[in-house]
Specification:
Helix content is 45%, strand content 17%. The chain has 221 residues and is an alpha/beta fold. It has two domains: 29 residues, no CATH class; 190 residues, Beta-carbonic Anhydrase, Chain A.
């Protein structure tokens, strides 16, 4: 805890004072452009990864970057997504998985989670991912299997995202674009799903002039 307390003191004395104008503006309200859905893994820092400032990202974090399908019985993720799209008017939604994900390792291997009933229930929202891996990736092992699981799970959660009425409506009218990302923490590289190529492509290729579009909304609705 002392590390956190020392950090708070440095923030107040150095960071806040040097960026006082920014924080004064943020106190008036928020208008983030992106809803960023990612894993709770302590090694993932969305703002550091994207080099964004406070106020730029509206963030949802949970084990396995899960988006439960829409349900009349609202949960925290559902409420946050609805608020981000309907009230804050985010223009982009990113579902970002990552390498070395413990949640996805459990999904890939069918790990016995009976001693962790809450985790077991939560990861049931990745059942579609597990079925795809079982049906199409049985020949893979180890790191290759985990990579495939991470990638397929991002696509599964994007499908779940579009069961949410507010997202479906905004996507249909072009008010919001959906993006599937995978962050490889060993190299710092990020890969985005290209629906035309039907694979994840390094975002470096975007910088080099390759046109990578957001997810084709009609392809998976």
């Amino acid at each position: 805890m002392q590390k956190l307390i020392d950090g708070l003191h440095r923030f107040q004395a150095q960071v806040f004072e040097s960026q006082k104008a920014l924080f004064e503006e943020l106190a008036k309200g928020q208008k983030p452009e992106v809803l960023f859905i990612t894993c709770s893994d302590s090694r993932i820092n969305p703002n550091l990864l994207t080099q964004t400032k406070p106020g730029d990202l509206f963030i949802v974090r949970n084990a396995g970057n899960i988006v439960p399908p829409y349900s009349p019985h609202s949960g925290g993720e559902q409420a946050t997504i609805e608020y981000g799209v309907a009230v804050l008017g985010v223009q982009h939604i990113v579902v970002c998985g990552h390498s070395l994900c413990g949640a996805m390792k459990a999904v890939a291997t069918g790990e016995d989670l009976s001693s962790l009933p809450s985790v077991q229930h939560w990861l049931s929202h990745a059942h579609g991912t597990r079925q795809i891996i079982k049906d199409h990736y049985g020949h893979l092992k180890g790191e290759a299997l985990l990579t495939a699981t991470v990638e397929e799970n991002v696509l599964t959660q994007l499908e779940h995202l579009q069961t949410h009425p507010v997202v479906r409506s905004a996507a249909r009218t072009g008010k919001v674009a959906l993006h599937g990302w995978v962050y490889k923490m060993e190299t710092g590289k990020v890969f985005q799903y290209d629906h035309r190529e039907r694979q994840f492509v390094s975002l470096e290729e975007v910088a080099n002039g390759l046109a990578i579009t957001s997810l084709d909304q009609h392809a998976i609705i």
